[in-house]
Design brief:
Elements lengths: L7 E2 L13 H13 L5 H20 L1 H4 L6 E5 L2 E5 L5 E6 L5 E5 L4 E6 L2 E7 H4 L3 H10 L4 E4 L32 H20 L5 H8 L26 E4 L7 H25 L4 H27 L2 E6 L3 E7 L7 E4 L5 E10 L6 E11 L5 E6 L5 H10 L4 E2 L18 H5 L4 E5 L2 E5 L5 E5 L6 E7 L2 E7 L5 E6 H4 L3 H10 L4 E2 L1 H15 L55 E4 L3 H26 L6 H24 L3 E6 L2 E6 L4 E6 L5 E5 L7 E5 L5 E5 L5 H10 L20
Parallel strand pairs: 5-8, 13-16, 20-23
Antiparallel strand pairs: 1-2, 2-3, 3-4, 5-6, 6-7, 9-10, 10-11, 11-12, 13-14, 14-15, 17-18, 18-19, 20-21, 21-22, 24-25, 25-26, 26-27, 28-29, 29-30
Length: about 725
Amino acid sequence: MRTVEHELVGLAGPDGRWRPVAAGPFALLAVVLALLPIRPVWLWAALIGAVAAVPWMLGAAPEARRRRPRPFWRLSAAGLERVGPGGLSMVSYERSRIDALAITTGDGVLTVFHRFGRTAVGGMTAMGLEPLAVFVTARRLGIPMHVLDGESTDLLDPALDEALHIPGLDDDAPGGSALPRDHAAEKRLLDQEAALLAAAHEPSLQASLQASAEPSGEPATGSGSTRGRNRAGKGRADGQRLDTPEPLPSRRRIVLLGALTALLGAVMIIRIAVDGTGEFGARLAAGCWTLAAIAGVLAARRRLLRAARVRWTITAERLLVRALPGRRREAQDLPAGDVAAVVVGPGLRLDPVSGEPRRADLAALAFGHRMELVARLPAHGLDDFQLAHALDDHGYRVITPGTRPPRRPEYGLEGLPEIFAQVPGGRLVVADGGLGWADAAGDVVLKMPEDRIGGIELLTIAGHAWVRLYDTDGDEFFAAPLSALRISRTDLRDSARRAGLPVNDAEYDAYLSAAFHSAVSTFATPEPGTEPEPATAALPAQSAGQEGAALRPDRADEPDFTFSVPAPPGPATAPGALLDATRRSRLGTYGMSVLLCQAVALLGAVWLGPELGGFNTTASWSVPAGLVIGLAGYWLYDRNRSQLRVSSAGLAVVTRRGRVEWDLARDRIGGIGIDEARERMPRLVVWGPSGRVLRQVAFPPDLDELRRACERYGVPWGPPDADRPAPPPPEL
């Protein structure tokens, strides 16, 4: 996408694409034809195949593929207008009649202020416009731009709220900020505009590079506008390629599955035609096979469109972005000299099926040296951390939406007694074998006896030391940060252990274990076949006067005082919490497996019933057999189901028979929790420190137990915060 200066063109889909025309009505017509008793049978089968193939033939016709271009929105010196086919203006707001533009943070609607009031134009996402691009372009055109808190009162349909959501505007609005939401959003846009201005007006280094290269006879390879494009230089001459992960299942498997579905449907229809279509049951089976074949092909095509990958090739001279697979002319080749800065963050992308703009978790906007939007570069599926640093390593100016507020724990201080706040200077103390709350003079005003305390757990939440208290039944009844209790972690742990209270500090114990293993690893026995390193030892003082003052040679009969130290346990063997799938999910999976087997049994009775004595006779034994197979099959799977082990050494998924499916060491884990993805169901995943998804947990354990286990063994709960690195456990 290329634009001229001071003109912003909204994101719009391609003009034409090969797709079936009216696939739904023709599929329904094919099923109806399959149910009709048409004679002869070859005409019946031919009509079904021809009607099913008509949508694809219409879609392949040249006239059908030459579709009219999609309408798009444009903001220029002429004003805001929606351009339709042929370049005709469908909706127009002239520049002379526009007093100001505004974006509402609640619903993401662009509003035009004029002399007679205001008009809600539409949602930013549905218009294919990004807030930053509109903000910068409008201010360059001299149009006042505002960000308003709340929602527009001129929404046409409340069902469009999700489609009208602004990506990147209110996603990172700080909840605890002193600024209102509209002020914070406008400040973020102003900060990004200032960064774009600094990048656009930065002195070009191309002239200096040419001046340094001409005396030596070497051509200059600098590409202007960057702050030292050769800064990444060494090892980056060939560029860097970033690809989205391979889709699962792969595109070849999707094509093969769709082709097999269509082929199986055609073979079964031919077989039914050969056997005869006199009975209604045979024609009903043919209609089911027709519907299954058409639905399988359409689903495979839809899955193929969504399985497209994005490939970035980043060099110091250009940016090459293309979708895989795709036509060569669809690749975006952007010279580095045209780019002043790249804004990496939430944005827009085209829906691969409908072609309409949709919000994307990651996109890149390339701005030129005149603050114009040069290109929209798709980046959905890539790692934002890796993309931003790859661009920065090759000399591109990278701008991000801003620092996110630090994540806070989900629970607070609701368990603190009111007396804690009523006693000035109060603090938690260990007194008389129990816990107490002492005032500034040291007198205990509130005491918790020892017989009520079943356990004291020390852990780290969001980088702060916390304490949890459990009663004798094992139920938690108190949780608070130690900073609010005015006691250090070390003092509470040591004084409670001296008093004989049950204290569990898993992070401190893991730290001592690691320190012990690192200290005694030098005394370990060398592996067989390796040459031990010579050890130097200091002689005692009395040996200096002995004759020869030399060391005695080693004797074979002297005992060997070296000993071996076992290696620390791994994530699969370290003591920890073993989490299983919830009973509700297991029962649901039992029911789904039984229902699936019953459906297969009924379909088999419909298709094979005429050859096995009729539908009723076949169903009388296939339905009980399906029930037994469903129960027994899932029982065989369930007896060796996977379980999640959480320990101080890391995470591991092990089966009930002890087989390790995968494990991750603690230093590779950035967080574990629910991934609220927009394009798929919420899933339980493990992130790396950079935010990349490392593993996916296939079974859903109890989330409360998982959170407590992660906090108990020092595994961070929730996605990693890239803007705020997690500190080590305090006071160790």
